[in-house]
Amino acid sequence: MHRVLVVDDEPQIVRALVINLKARKYEVDAAHDGATALRLAADRHPDVVVLDLGLPDMDGVDVIRGIRGWTRIPILVLSARQTSDEKVEALDAGADDYVTKPFGMDELLARLRAAVRRAEPAAGMPEDAGVIETADFSVDLAAKKVHREGRDVRLTPTEWHLLEVLVRNTGRLVSQKQLLKEVWGPSYGTETNYLRVYMAQLRRKLETDPSHPRHFVTEPGMGYRFEK
């Protein structure tokens, strides 16, 4: 059974989410402000967080950064903010997905399920998945770990999933649409800003010179390619 932390200062939204999530056998905690959300995240260790950005005591982006300081649990933003810059800011802070208000409950639950799946160990992982070595870092596909300069690199579930898809297709172009569908789910295909943000994050964490990437290559208008 998965535990969900719902963070929103609108009681009717919290009530609707709690009812729908409990009906689907989720355990649910609720917070109406950022401070309570951070405390519950630390105390209850949810499997996924559904987070509104417009909180009474702090900006939701600061809550994302606070959670990302110690855990990789998926964070699904639920917000009335609809501009591209605001979405990118939340994704850049470490959110895994973004749903704008007003929202459809079925779509939100589908995105929540996808976020939880991305965080779980991959089923049927081949035993010979092995370790991919580059000049700058190594990727252990079986252990789901990345090492650089002798240390583990902390990746969010979405960052890892994107990296895994690219690494498993080393040397091959992976289209934008394919990446979106494999990492975020079949209902995605046009959210190229997600790819731009997460590729930038992978480059910052793994490339020696992120502005001139050696391993995560962009094919303009088509997709991305991983090179060892």
UniProtKB/TrEMBL annotation:
Q: Which positions carry 4-aspartylphosphate?
A: D52
Top-level division of the source organism's lineage: Bacteria
Q: Which UniProt keywords apply?
A: DNA-binding, Phosphoprotein
Q: Which residues bind DNA?
A: 129-228
Which CDD domains does this UniProt record tie to the protein? REC_OmpR_KdpE-like, trans_reg_C
**Gene3D superfamilies from the xrefs?**
3.40.50.2300, 6.10.250.690, Winged helix-like DNA-binding domain superfamily/Winged helix DNA-binding domain
**Domain (Response regulatory) ranges:** 3-116
Q: Which residues form the OmpR/PhoB-type domain?
A: 129-228
Pfam families this protein is in?
Answer: Response_reg, Trans_reg_C
Q: Which InterPro entries match?
A: CheY-like_superfamily, OmpR/PhoB-type_DNA-bd, Sig_transdc_resp-reg_receiver, WalR-like, WH-like_DNA-bd_sf
Q: Which PANTHER family match?
A: KDP OPERON TRANSCRIPTIONAL REGULATORY PROTEIN KDPE, REGULATOR OF RPOS
Q: Which named protein is this?
A: Response regulator
